[in-house]
Structures are given as C-alpha cells and as structure tokens.
Amino acid sequence: MSPVLLPVLLPLLAAAAILVLRRGGPALALGGAVLGLGASLWLLARVAGGPAETLLLPGLPEMPLRLTAEPLTALLAVAVATVGTFVLTYAVGYMQRESGLPRFCAVMSLFLAAMQALVLAGDWILLLAAWELIGLCSYLLIGFWFQRPEAADAAGRAFLYTRSADLGLYVAIFILIGSTGTSEIAATLATDGGATVAAGLLLLMAAMGKSAQVPLQDWLMRAMAGPTPVSALLHSATLVAAGAILLIRSAPLLSPGVLLAIGLVGGITTVAAGVIALAERDLKRLLAASTASQYGLMLVAVGAGVPLAALLHLLAHAAIKSTLFLAAGDFQHARGGTGFDQLEGVGRARPWAFAGFALAALALAGIPPLSGFFSKDAVIAAALSAQGAAWLGPLALAGTLLTGGYMARALRLLWRGSGETRPVAGSAWMTVGVWGLVIPATTLGLAFGPIEAVLDLPAVPAGAVAVLLGLLAAVSGLGLGWLAPAPRLLGPIYPWARRGLAIGGGLTVWVGRPAMAAARGCEWLEGRLYAAVLDVGRAGLSVARLARASDERRIDGMIFALVAGMRALGDRARALQSGLIHRELAVSVSVAAVGLVVLLVIL
Description:
The chain is mainly α. Helices cover 77% and strands 2% of the residues.
C-alpha cells in the first residue's frame, strides 16, 4: 500500500469502525488519529529529501484522481494530524458526559480524513470532493447539539455562507481544466493568460468563504455554538485553514493584480476582525474573531508574493489557536460558560490551563522567542517588501497591534477577579490535550529554518526593521489591552464593533435572508411541480381505467359474443354428423338435388 494513502485511510477506517460498532468511539477515533500522525511523519520523512510520491486512483476518463506527497503537502498533513490527535485526546475528557458520542467521534474522524485528502490532493477533482466533505462535516459538528436553536442556526449559517463562496472554486476549476485539458494541479498552475486572472479571483472568493474573510466573517463567530473541540479543530488546521491552504498551493498561478486583491482582502480582514475581537465579551467568540484576523495576515503574506511566510504563520497559528480554544473549554466547564462575566479570575483556579492559555496568547501576540514572533515577523517582512507595501505594511502592523490588545484583555480578565469554580470532569485528558499543543505553539519557531530549507518556495525577505516594528506593535498592543478597557480604546466605533461591524444588518439582511427567501421560493415551486406531476399521473391513471373499462365491457363483450356464436354454429353443424350411413347418403342426395335444381334455374 502506498504510504501517501495512509494519512487519509487510517482516520477514515476509524470513522467506519465507530459507525459499525457504535461503541468505543473515543478510543477508535484517537487510535486512528495517532496512527494517522505516525503515517504523516513517515511520509514527510520520505519526501523531505527525495522525490514526491503520487498515487493514482480511478477517476474521470483520462483524469485520474491523485494523492501527491511533496514537502509542502506532507508538512500540511503532519500539521493536520498533530492538531487532530491532541484535540481528540482533549475531547475524551471534554465529551465524556455527552450523549451522541459515537456520532461525534465518527464525524471528527471523517473530518480528519477529508482534510488530509484535501491537503494531499494532486488533482482538482479530488480537492473539490474533499472541500465539499469538510464543509459537510463542519455543518454536522457545529450543529452537534442540534436540539439547541442557536446551534442549528449557526450550522445553517456556516453552511450557507461557505457554500455560497464555494461557487468560486467550482468555476475556477472549470476554467483551469478547460484551458489546460488536465485536472492535475501542478500542470494547471503552470499556465498563464487571461483565464488565470479569472481563476485566481474565483479562488480568492472560495478562500474568503472558508477562511471567514470580510465580509464573510460573521459565520465563524456564530459557529462557537458547537462543542469546544470542534472549535479548536475547525479554527486551527481544518475548515478555516482550507482557504489559506488553497491560496498557498495556488500561489504560482496568481497574477500581480490578483495578488494585490488577495493582500487587500487579508489586510482589511485582519484589522476589521481584530477590532471585533477587541470589542467581544465572550471568550470563544473573541478567539473566533481572532481566527479571521490571523488568516487575514496569511492572505497579506500570499498577496505580498511570499507564500512561505503565510505557511509559517499557518503552522504556528494551528498550534496556538487550538491551544487557546482547548484552554477556553477547560474554563467553560469550570464556570459553566464563556462570557466575560462568568470567567473573571478563573485562571487562578485553573492554573495549568491558564498557563497554557497565557503562553499561547503571548505566542499569538508575537512575543519572542515563541513561535508567533517568528511567523508574524515573516508576514510583516513580506508585507513591507511587497509592491503594495504602502497598504499591506500598515495593515499587517495594525493587525499585530490589535492581536496584542485583545489577547491582553483576555489574560487580564482570566487572571483578575474571583468566583466559584466547580470540578472539571476529565480534566486529566484535557490537560494532556492542551499541553500537547502548547509545546509546538511555543517552540515551533525553532523549526522554521529546516522547514524553509526543504520547501521549494520563495524565501522570506530578511530585515531588522520588520522585526523591530513587529515587536513594537506586539508590546504596544499588550500594554494597551491590559491597561485600557475596550470602550476607551475603540471610542465611538465600540457599539458598531460589538455588532460585528455589520452594515445595514450585515450579511443576514443582504445575503442570508434573500438566500433563504430564494430557497423557500424554490421549495414552493418544487412543491407545485411535484403536485402537477402527481396530477398528471392521476389523469393518466383515470384514462387507463376508462380504457380498461371500455375493453372489458365493449370490445371484450363483442369478442366473447362472436366466440359464443361460432360455438353455437359448431354445435348445430355437429348435430348433422349422426354417424348413420343411410342418413348421410340421404343428406348427400338431397344436397346434390338442390344443387342441380339451382344450376338448371341459373342456366
């Protein structure tokens, strides 16, 4: 068996086993994730210093499906498997009192398998299938507590907004395959011309939906209605990462104009989502807004023409953000919620979780020597060296400043104050999950050098100015966030930021309600068409019944009457055949005489 298949197959088999056995879900899901992590590490070791490995699978005519392991895709597979393993470890404790555990574990395993298929996909058809599958899994996981109206609404919004943007991926793939005649990703990225501009903009549209970029960021904060392990996996290395991964892998295709558009979308998002996070009063929603902001920084790096910087920040952010969410889930169980009024001082009562949260928060802010310091410096250096540096540089620095502000605000809230704290069931599993991710969140920056050496991507620009400006922005943001309340920092825009910077009701008014109205109209039309088809069927049945009655009462009656007449005639003819010779001779003579008389008369 090809090693490139194992990272996908192992969690997929775990999902199938859970659905069949309906028991042992946590053990099977965790086992599949651990084995998948081992397979991903083995795969990375095989391709890091050697040729890429490709597995061809049956697909469309002359367009086979491909799984391709090269240094970039294998590294992404390791990141997905690492985060998935520790999130599932954490989930063993977090979800142990929940009903529907087999369903949760099966979908989480399927989610991991689909994400591995996406990052290892070597052709657009397989990538699109995996893209759709992670969308379905996210819908099922966000709506895990579907009995709760807010969870069902959040799942529907996530599905609606991301599916709307997914249209861009469909059309982009159609353009790329149509212009090159192949579905192989590597071959389509080597093309150029007007088609690539349209395809690049459409890929940006798809990435904006998945990575919650402005103006499609609202669904991500509402997705906090799902279980915390879902939030941790969703925001760090799977669904939301898919948009950034798509653009990083497509970077050779993107023209300068498309790159500038990507950078501006990312820059606007990192500032807008950072302002929203600064105004939030719920810890999980703050972290969700932060996710959109950080993926905005990744798009800034892609737009600057340095996808390596975006990749480094994606890897660091995966470990950091999953740590933050898992620690937030620990606080949630201790206080029964994630609202700021519920979490005051919980860090003192949960020191291990708070220590992990604090390290990850400082890493996200960009404090040395933690991983976020190196990855954010790479993004800022890329932005300052880009053609659009006048726009991208200030936006990246503003995003860094805001990151420090909202993370300091969260740390201050968790440390200062007091309140009753209840025991947390499964805390041992949860602590292992948190600290398993704290280690890469703090130390991953040390591996950036070797990572850059094995990847065939443009190098990150070097510059002491970027380091100094980034550190100044991070420290300033932390100081302002700790010392000044959000209303004072944001001033008159604070109420607007509390509403998610929505304009005229936001996407709910401009997209959600029209889309739902169109869906209801389609449902009404479908109902009418269905009723019309049934009416036509009923009319056909009525005609058939009439035809049957006509056959039975008229045509069949005539046929039966003819048959009866012929039978009667036969009976009479049979009476003439008595078997007596003298009678037969008399009849013959009589008939002959009658015939002779007739002939004489005629003649």
